[in-house]
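It is worth pausing here to work through a concrete case rather than discussing structure prediction in the abstract. The textbook approach is simple: state the sequence, then state the predicted structure, then interpret. We follow exactly that order.
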Amino acid sequence: MVAVFRTLRTHWKKSIFAAGLTVCGVMWANRRHDANLVRRAVCEEAAKYGRQTLGVNERPKRVTVFLNATAGKGKAKNLFEQNAEPVLHLAGFEVTVVKTDHEGQAKELIGALDNVDMIVVAGGDGTLLEVVTGMLRREDQASFSKIPIGIIPLGKSNTLSKVIFPDFEDHVRCITSAALAIVKGSTIPVDVIQITGTVGKPVFALNELRWGEFRNAKANTSRFWYFGPMRKFASFIGSTFKPWPPTHNATLRFTPAVQRPPLPPERDAPPPTRPPFLFRLIARIRGLWPTHTAEDADIKEVEWDELNISSMEVAVRTLNHQLDATKPEAVEVCLMPESFSKLDFLKAAFSKHNLVDMIEGSCKTLQVQECVLHPESLDSPFDIDHEEYDAMPITVRVLPWKLRFFCSSTARKQLLQEVQPST
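Step two, the predicted structure:
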């Protein structure tokens, strides 16, 4: 024993290195073991649903998965195959995996999709944007948009998944729980913002539109690749050497927020029964004479307000981050003040919190139902759900409760806590 301590003391540098390597190895093995236990527990629960007996006229649910294999620095395919795909198969689903390999492919493929019960998006915000836009550009979008959507968070940015799966910080737990939520079938409705430009087809987003200096500095990060892990810091530092403050001028026209329609049912209600012949005859006779209701007299033309803005950053975001059924039918327009110091700019840039949430006290916030943004300069592009689009005059409109997403039980309870039991 004395000889062992003498050796450790003599070779103390090698001893410290070996001890550190051993600790790292033990921690890595422990994480792998915990991840395997999580996968096993989720698979066993999913298998219970798969063993349920189907009726004579029932068939397994058909699931189409749009997998962005390049998401998450190329790790998305392995993460999906290890943590999510076994859960869907064990639940008895007919799973079809569509791998996308270039930008815009998911948008094109979903336009031709047919005979599907559920859609799953395995990727990040960009993949989800393409799928949602493709769904709502279809001619039959009114019926096709009722198909529930599942999210497997595999991308660099997974904004909506953090809202509908708020309980899980560990990546493996979040992926397996998202897959299990698809199996269980609990859903919540979310808003969509329709962004229509002067050129091209409309884009449909779930999170936000950004336009300004923070967006530009973040987009330029890849140009500073030679700084390695400090490239983001270098990009924001480089932005402070421009004429300060960098302002973006535009004209904003908007209509005020209105009361949101009631929360739709989780599942479509059965079609109403046909009334008796006598009632149908009376209703048809009444329809021959025009009638005027009190609501017709109250209809007024919507008034538009106009505002000239000069801001460092403009953000138009949905209210999906608020799990509250009583929120208004609106989008949030956040205008960052132009009197923003360079130090505050750098602090906000490297905060782990959402930029708008961090500087909410200094931002001017408007809740509007519809708005028209007309930039004076088109040099700085837009950022829509972390995807770059050319700047142009745009119209942004909220589509309340437009899509339904699979979620955790916690998120659904939080959404329904303000709703009366009668609804």
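Step three, interpretation. The chain has 17 helices and 15 strands. Residues 294-299 have pLDDT under 50 and may be disordered.
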